[in-house]
Amino acid sequence: MNGHRIKPRHYRYQHASATLPPLQFIPLARCRLHHPRSQARSLLKCSAMAASSRVLALLAAVSFLAVTAEALSTKYYDKRCPALQPAVRSAVARAVAADTNAGAAVLHLFFHDCFVNGCDGSVLLDDGAAPGEKGAGPNANSLRGYEVIDAAKAAAEAACPGAVSCADVLALAARDAVSLLGGPSWNVRLGRKDAHAASRDAANANLPGPGSGLPALVAAFRAKGLSARDMTALSGAHTVGRARCSTFRARASAGAGGGDGEAINATFAAQLRGACGGADGALAPLDAVTPDVFDNGYFRALVERRGLLHSDQELFSGGSQDALVRRYARDGADFAADFAKAMVRMGDPAPAPGTPLEVRVNCRRPN
């Protein structure tokens, strides 16, 4: 059996992507034969016990793996709520038609949810007895789009009351936002549950910031089971949306000799300084050419040293991702395909075992 490893007098079931319940085998060596006359009878009895133990343990392992593998499925709501996906897409489409920034906002919400204790809808929770994720450093005055998820959740509740988690609504809304902005679509694996609580400390610890260097970015994504290639593809989400001047002011100042270690086009840096002025809250597009279209313009900008954030330009700064950035800049279809695959992988992590979960009725508070 794959991953089943047996050692003398010690047995352990190992699996690369899941923590299995402990399995109890009875090695024959542990059977003591107290009297020569009873050796044959005792050996037969102990052999039967050991065999039975192995069978039960293997059945438990198979059962556990089956549950893990079936936890998320593209068909999870086919019978539970067949009207779900059209309902969510309609809600997102209305929001994007009213404000194209809403699409980017929803997409970024999904990233920030999955990077903190798994994809559990915790980023949507308002502060409770303990401070939640909304006020964490990487999220405060940055994340938005909560009202879009509220509307999509209301549509889901109208179609199938109490059946659909906020985490699944967010996963579907992110896919639909990308598609509505001209990007790829993909089949979303569903079946997530919602966390009862959020952790500001976990958000501060797990979300890479706009000043992150390439090694830190690779490490942060690797910690979530994502490769460097996934990281670069997913960073392409910055082909839509806008960022506050406080997140890139230091980078823009470097173009005027006010900072070190920044690879930035001088003309672009001057434009950013002019756009910001003295206001940290002023916004600039992450992709200055096509800020509301999901395409590969982000990567073309990086090749021209026009990445808005330091963490953006780090993907093309003489390091390991330069070749991939050039490839995506040349081939938008290649980027779109890799992005869709990486989004599926990013949506897989579940909360830690033992985390209290539910299907929230209101995404902003536990039931």
From TrEMBL:
GO terms for molecular function: heme binding; lactoperoxidase activity; metal ion binding. Heme b binds at residue 238. Its main location: secreted. Its cofactor is heme b; Ca(2+). Ca(2+) 2 binds at residues 239, 287, 290, 295. GO terms for cellular component: extracellular region. It is found in: Secreted. Keywords: Calcium, Disulfide bond, Glycoprotein, Heme, Hydrogen peroxide, Iron, Metal-binding, Oxidoreductase, Peroxidase, Pyrrolidone carboxylic acid, Secreted. Ca(2+) 1 binds at residues 113, 116, 118, 120, 122, 133. Its EC number is 1.11.1.7. Substrate binds at residue 208. Binds 1 heme b (iron(II)-protoporphyrin IX) group per subunit. Binds 2 calcium ions per subunit. The active site is at 112 (proton acceptor). SUPFAM superfamilies: Heme-dependent peroxidases (SSF48113). It catalyses: 2 a phenolic donor + H2O2 = 2 a phenolic radical donor + 2 H2O. Residues 71-367 form the Plant heme peroxidase family profile domain. The keyword Disulfide bond applies. One of its GO terms (biological process) is response to oxidative stress. Disulfide bonds join 81-160, 114-119, 166-363, 245-276. It is an enzyme of class 1 (oxidoreductase). Removal of H(2)O(2), oxidation of toxic reductants, biosynthesis and degradation of lignin, suberization, auxin catabolism, response to environmental stresses such as wounding, pathogen attack and oxidative stress. Belongs to the peroxidase family. Ascorbate peroxidase subfamily. This is Peroxidase. It comes from Panicum miliaceum (Proso millet). The lineage of its organism: Eukaryota, Viridiplantae, Streptophyta, Embryophyta, Tracheophyta.
